[in-house]
Amino acid sequence: MKRTNDLSVAIMNFNNESNVGGLIRTANAAGLKEVVIVGRKKWNIGAATGAQSLTKIVRMPTTEEFLYYCKDGGYNLVSVEIGEDSSNIFYYSYPENPILVIGNEGTGVPLRILEASKGIVYIPQFGEVECLNAATSGSIAIYDWIRKNNALEEKYKIIISF
Ligand SMILES: C[S@@+](CC[C@H](N)C(=O)[O-])C[C@H]1O[C@@H](n2cnc3c(N)ncnc32)[C@H](O)[C@@H]1O
User: Fold this and answer.
1) Predicted structure pTM score
2) Does residue 137 line the site of ligand 1, with CB under 6 A?
3) 49 CA distance to ligand 1 centroid (A)?
4) What is the pLDDT of residues 10-60, one digit of tens each?
5) Rounded CA gap, 61 and 38, in Å?
């Protein structure tokens, strides 16, 4: 059953087309309002498995246009990024009308976006790798929001309450 959840995700200039496709697929599975692709727009059709034609995709050629889009739409940016000013995602309370921003594989979330963000969250890591894959990070953050915003299906809510 299709349901739209009040959450958006933005992909900042990903280089890897499989990451774009994979995140569109997660966004669709999680019933997100939209995926905003900032900068490079190609995605891997195999990784998206058709989700690209079922999901609202908005294209913003530049960071400035993206920021204008967010301001105009009353979005609160929540950047998903490791950094000194980041909060642990598992203790974070999301603002209203959030848009999760996921950074480029090489350069991360641009400073301009971090400065405009209502919150910056990191996903705790315990091993040796420097960071998670971009699409994986986005997927974890999307489902963290789902869990905290009572957006689960009834049958799963019952399981969790035990
Ligand atoms: C492969 S990382 C790029 C890291 C980049 N080289 C840097 O130093 O900023 C790609 C994106 O995945 C997300 N990411 C990866 N690991 C993360 C973590 N542990 N917590 C939050 N975001 C993470 C961020 O959005 C990041 O911009």
Assistant:
1) 0.92
2) yes
3) 24
4) 999 998 889 999 999 999 999 999 999 999 776 656 666 777 888 999 999
5) 6
